[in-house]
Amino acid sequence: MACSVIPNRFAPCLALPGLYNGRMIVISHLQKVDGATTLLEIETLTAAAGEITAVTGLIGIHKTTFLELLTGQIPPTAGTVRLAGIDPWHDRAAFARLVGVLTAENGLYPRLSARQNLTFFCDLYGLPHDHADAMLLVVGLQDQAKVQAEKLSPGLARRLAIGRAILHKPQVLLLVEPFAECDLASTSLLERLIRVTAAEGTAVLLISRDLAGLRPLCQTVVEMENGRVAQQYRPEERESQSNLPFKIPARLEDKVVLVNPADIVYVAAEEGRTVLCTPDGRVPTHLTLNEVEQRLARSGFFRAHRSYLVNVQHISEVIAYTRNSYTLILHNGGDGRIEIPLSKTAARDLREMLGY
């Protein structure tokens, strides 16, 4: 790829990762506190060159805080963030040279053409404009070169945005909701591009609300809850356990009951606890929502919203109130009708999964 050339003026920074034994992403004892509230707390998170890591489960202020710490917009209360050997808070110039960022909002200039968006960043990085032409080819937009970014479809705009993020061949790539509003063709292209980018030595960090579509890409998954690491694992570890028989433990007064996944209509996270909802009632479990999701991964359950897992077999209706407002209607086996919020991203994933 023509875009793989790194200007010589970047060279002084390239030796820095050696200080971290080849680890391109190093987060250690990281904490961000606002008043009496701990917004984020990560003991350790590392990724080496060529690794793809997914961080999921961050929402709201916790997600915003994590992104602001990674991109050097705010300093940590305690601990350190190192990307390609540099501190993003203290060395903004080196961060721009060594790190690529794809935000959820794309970060494109709407009135500039696809090619102009890329040539603008070529100028910032000191790259010749033929890098822009090469990148348009890589992301499949050569026939859209003169089209204004605001007139591109959401999927094509996402391709252009990731092309901008990798234009300067970063050593670390931060991708937020990488497949947001992408059609199947764009999702497939971006998956291949992420794999190729990692294979060329870039450490890739995927940040998403859930794991839909991300697990096959990753070597490591980090699941967060309320700004803290709930669990960290390699997907193949879960695959090896996927065929084991199991039930979901729940606490009921002075005993523990084991609930068959087929009997669960939906699972909800409410006020710091996880509740299993069945036709016979609601029972709490000591497992987190993410832990329940892992156990139910092959049992036909779907993350409809950050706080809800639903049994797909119980979905009877999908209601779209507005372009961005959706509700699932579940039936619990009797006459009961249950309404569950459905996020915009989950609505798209459900539509693709069920083919309606």
Topology:
Blueprint: E1 23-34, E2 37-48, E3 52-56, H1 60-70, E4 78-83, H2 92-98, E5 99-102, H3 114-125, H4 130-138, H5 154-166, E6 172-176, H6 184-199, E7 203-208, E8 220-225, E9 228-233, H7 235-239, E10 248-252, E11 255-259, E12 266-270, E13 273-278, E14 281-285, H8 289-295, E15 301-305, E16 308-311, E17 315-322, E18 325-331, E19 337-342, H9 344-354
Parallel strand pairs: 3-7, 3-8, 5-6, 6-7
Antiparallel strand pairs: 1-2, 1-4, 8-9, 10-11, 12-13, 12-16, 13-14, 15-16, 17-18, 18-19
Helix pairs in contact: 3-4, 5-6
Give the CATH H-level superfamily of the largest domain. Answer: P-loop containing nucleotide triphosphate hydrolases
Q: In this structure, how is the largest beta sheet organized? A: 6 strands, mixed
**Number of domain units:** 2
What would you report as the Rg, rounded to the nearest angstrom?
A: 22 Å
Short descriptors:
alpha+beta; OB fold (Dihydrolipoamide Acetyltransferase, E2P); 2 domains; 6-stranded mixed β-sheet; 5-stranded antiparallel β-sheet; 9 helices; 33% strand; disordered N terminus
Describe the structure.
With 356 residues, this protein is an alpha+beta fold. The chain folds into two domains: 2-238, Rossmann fold, CATH 3.40.50.300; 244-354, OB fold (Dihydrolipoamide Acetyltransferase, E2P) (Beta Barrel), CATH 2.40.50. It contains nine helices and 19 strands. The protein has helices spanning 60-70, 92-98, 114-125, 130-138, 154-166, 184-199, 235-239, 289-295, 344-354, and strands at 23-34, 37-48, 52-56, 78-83, 99-102, 172-176, 203-208, 220-225, 228-233, 248-252, 255-259, 266-270, 273-278, 281-285, 301-305, 308-311, 315-322, 325-331, 337-342. A hairpin with a 2-residue loop joins β12 and β13 (273-278). It is globular and about 70 Å long. The protein starts with 22 loop residues before the first strand and ends with a helix.
